[in-house]
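Data card: per-record layout.
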Amino acid sequence: MAAYGPGVLMGNWKEEACLEEERLRDFIQKRERGELLMQKINRLKDNLFKKVQLSVSKDGFVCFGDTVMLLSPDKEPLVQHDAVARGELTLAVNLEEVSVYSPVSLQAPCALSAVTTVDPEGRNTFCILSVDGGSVGEPVKFGQKFGLGTTGGFSDPMLYLASDHKSFMRFAKKSYLQQVFLTDELSYLTCWQATFLDPQLRLEYEGLPVPANSKIIITHCHTNRSLAVPRNFWARSYFGREYEVICHTYLDSHRAEEDKNYWVIVTGNPGEEGGTMIDRPEPQPGGMRKKEFREETKNIQIPDYN
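The structure for this 306-residue chain is written out next.
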């Protein structure tokens, strides 16, 4: 049997002490450079969930350069126990696809999802970009190409909303339909156009400005398929359910798009209360807010003339 003397034990202790000192020194250096995993995660969350001020539309139209949200409006249930998700959803950067180990904040390609958050944050706000020479501040028109870019709340880089034809290697993970993703290159894959909601009036509205905060169809120019949220495909993330976003045109029996393809380009509220236009209270008689109007009228006695 081998015997170990005090010298051997002392040598092992010194080696372990040196390794521990080296680990501590490495930890301190990473902490000073902000390279610890927890620091990266906190920095990522701070930017993705940073509050963002949306652009205010002065004329009621969507303009190039505007910072907006893309909102999928609430869906009407087809039956009483419809299992499809209800409520408003917004297009957002998919957190599961973001690598916290990378020095770059958002890496292309990056996936997207629809989230229940309707407050403007870094991850669910987009900039309307011109791809055909339109000037900043100029209204976007029906049928005109535009791009949608986001930085996810970071200063850079900007990634662009894109799509491409489905293939054996490229498709949506849940529905297996045409996927939507973020890329770092502006190309024909990142061109979109707004289409008027009513198919019978589309020719009349072609070339007219796109109204903000109204339901429209957003169509991918290269594949001629429309942006959609099926609402029955979702994945569980650290922040809750996130619904799959795809490019697919859902048509009803009248050859009109279904509500899965409806989108609202949301702008900021110009009022003192701030927020978005979807938070703006409905106008009431006398300029009162809805709550004040109820309080004012709840005790009014209606005379009986019978």
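Known properties of this structure: The mean pLDDT is 82. Residues 63 and 140 are 5 Å apart (CA to CA).

See the next section for split statistics.
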